[in-house]
Specification:
Elements lengths: L1 E4 L1 E4 L2 E8 L15 H30 L1 H14 L2 H13 L4 H17 L4 H20 L7 H4 L9 E5 L4 H5 L6 E6 L7 H8 L4 E3 L13 E5 L4 E4 L3 H21 L7 E2 L5 E8 L5 H6 L5 E5 L13 H13 L5 E5 L27 H6 L1 H15 L3 E6 L5 H20 L9 E6 L2 H5 L1 H4 L5 E4 L1 H8 L18 H17 L2 E4 L10 H7 L3 E4 L4 H9 L17
Parallel strand pairs: 3-4, 4-5, 5-6, 10-11, 10-17, 11-12, 12-13, 13-14, 14-15, 15-16, 16-17
Antiparallel strand pairs: 1-8, 2-6, 3-7, 7-8, 9-10
The protein binds phosphoenolpyruvate and magnesium ion (MG).
Length: 560
């Protein structure tokens, strides 16, 4: 057993098999075999293990995420047993006397190419499935892993893949297949990066920064990830596995105890109610949002609709995405933040030039203001979707009143266009801004009269106030998220909001920090928006806290 130490950025424990990403594809070479029967049997044994594994994954996922989503595994199991595919492998082994590994890779290449050339989109998409299935068979033939077969017996049903990579970009993270991934481990990575935040949103245990130790993990090795302590055990011994499985049970039990806070208001012992909402990256997160009984969506990071693709999402595509989220939150507010591309969230088709300091560069509303066509498409999609629920929209990375006025003018233009075309949208859509630059926090008293609400982005506020690049893992040790400067800026922002009679929330990670909940309540915060898994622990904290709210507190326009 080998122990790697990193930083746990999303808590929890997971046990599973290592799946290495970004590794050079393993070159599979051909060699001639003399005993073709034995080679065929090797293949049959690997195939049987693959099918068994896929069926197990199907059963487990069906319970966890429902039949429809789990179906992929049963389709893969069927495809693995396809007669034509097996005939192609048999021909390579028996007639051409190739080794089983080569035979599988040849058959996979042939079938992928055939699928890729089909007219039907559904069938074309099956090409990548063939590749996935072949990878599983190859893994069971021992490709890329020395110890996995022997460790197989340690794995229980439902212990899914653990992604291991040098680093993951936010767009790669958001595309991880949640049906089969149970955790991830990276060599690099910082605690406040978007990748770390996403792992919390997706409720995936994650350990970053294990450094060169990552090179010690081979594909298929059994891993036990203790993200609460930032540890990764490679080929864990029986005692470690026992202890960590117990922790998995304890965590599940703790989650069960929190269930009593579902369906309850987030109200302090002395009767003050706030809203505890969810941060999401897209529709895929809504299942967790509902499971954890969020009071609404406080931050929908819309830029994820723009990542991991070749071109801008159309108005129609965006409209569908927003509508689907709104429809799942009847009677509850959904705050969508407009495009926050730039810095670590890059999409090549925007054609942005490389920058010396991307975090201080052309990002978020600076792009919206220089590319009004892109902003107007998003605004139209949002307005159209507003008809299907309670939408609020907020602008990220604001530093001045002028920016807010220009964005509001563009927003109004989108409304006029729709009105002229007779396209309906909601009568009232609240417009807010994120307070995530020191400039915005300092002039929050001037900004408050221009908007309906503030949402404090403590992640960037920390980065810019403390001059700490949130992508730089070496700076994590300098990051004091309770720094007085940050808390003062938050307090000032809340006071500005109160004075103007608008509501104010926190959607950065600090909102989930239970050590600060009481302080935030005392300041008079109206809303905290956190990753779905953090909702119930936070509600428990609010419901068991007594605070005296500021006497001049006004909420959402209420007069004192
Ligand atoms: C923030 O900066 O606090 C925030 C919520 O936005 P993001 O983390 O996406 O930059
Ligand atoms: Mg931000």
């Amino acid at each position: 057993m080998l122990t790697l130490q990193g930083k746990g950025v999303s808590g929890g424990v997971a046990i599973g098999r290592a799946r290495l990403l970004h590794k050079e594809r393993i070159e599979i070479t051909r060699h001639l075999v003399t005993d073709t029967d034995t080679e065929w049997q090797r293949y049959e044994a690997a195939l049987a293990k693959t099918v068994e594994e896929l069926e197990r994954l199907y059963e487990w996922s069906r319970e966890e995420i429902g039949h429809e989503n789990a179906q992929l595994f049963s389709v893969h199991a069927m495809m693995a047993q396809d007669e034509d595919f097996n005939d192609a492998v048999r021909y390579e082994i028996m007639d051409k006397k190739s080794n089983a590994e080569y035979a599988v890779s040849q058959a996979a290449r042939q079938f992928s190419a055939a699928f890729a050339n089909m007219d039907d989109t559904y069938m074309r998409e099956r090409a990548s499935d063939v590749g996935d299935i072949a990878q599983r068979i190859l893994m069971h033939l021992g490709v890329g892993q020395e110890n996995a077969d022997e460790s197989d017996s340690h794995l229980a049903t439902g212990e899914g893949d653990i992604i291991c990579a040098e680093d993951l970009t936010p767009s790669e993270t958001v595309q991880l297949d949640r049906r089969s991934v149970s955790a991830f481990v990276t060599a690099q990575g910082s605690a406040n990066s978007h990748t770390a935040i996403l792992s919390r949103t997706m409720n995936l245990p994650a350990v970053v920064g294990v450094g060169e130790g990552l090179g010690q993990i081979c594909n298929g090795a059994v891993l036990a990830v203790d993200a609460d302590n930032g540890r990764v055990y490679v080929d864990p011994d029986a005692a470690t596995l026992r202890a960590l499985r117990l922790r998995i049970e304890q965590n599940a039990h703790a989650r069960t105890l929190l269930q009593k806070y579902r369906g309850r208001e987030s109200r302090t012992l002395d009767g003050h109610r706030i809203e505890i909402c969810a941060n999401i990256g897209g529709i895929e997160d809504m299942e967790e949002v509902i499971r954890n009984d969020a009071d609404g969506v406080g931050l929908f990071r819309s830029e994820f609709l723009y990542l991991g693709r070749e071109d801008f999402p159309s108005e129609e595509e965006q409209f569908e995405a927003y509508r689907r989220v709104l429809e799942q939150m009847p009677g509850k507010r959904v705050v969508v933040r407009t495009l926050d591309i730039g810095a670590d969230k890059q999409a090549a088709y925007f054609g942005l030039s490389a920058e010396e300091n991307p975090a201080l560069g052309l990002r978020a509303i600076r792009i919206s203001l220089t590319r009004p066509d892109v902003f107007l498409t998003q605004a139209r999609a949002l307005l159209r979707a507003s008809y299907y629920g309670t939408l609020a929209v907020m602008f990220p990375f604001v530093t001045s009143a002028d920016e807010v006025n220009r964005l509001t003018a563009l927003w109004e233009r989108a409304k006029t266009d729709l009105r002229e075309q007779g396209i309906p949208y909601a009568d009232r859509v609240e417009i807010g801004i994120m307070i995530e630059t020191p400039a915005a926090a300092i002039i929050s008293d001037r900004l408050a009269p221009l908007v309906d609400f503030f949402s404090i982005g403590s992640n960037d506020l920390t980065q810019y106030t403390l001059a700490l690049d949130r992508q730089n893992a070496a700076l994590d040790v300098f990051c004091d998220s309770h720094h007085e400067a940050i808390l003062r800026l938050i307090r000032h922002t809340v006071q500005s909001a109160r004075h103007a009679g608008i509501w104010v929330g926190i959607c950065g990670e600090l909102g989930a920090d239970l050590a600060l909940t009481e302080q935030f309540l005392r300041m008079g915060i109206d809303e905290l928006s956190v990753s779905p898994a953090a909702i119930l622990p936070l509600r428990e904290r609010v419901c068991t806290t007594r605070v005296k709210w500021p006497e001049d507190h006004t909420r959402k326009g209420e007069k004192i």
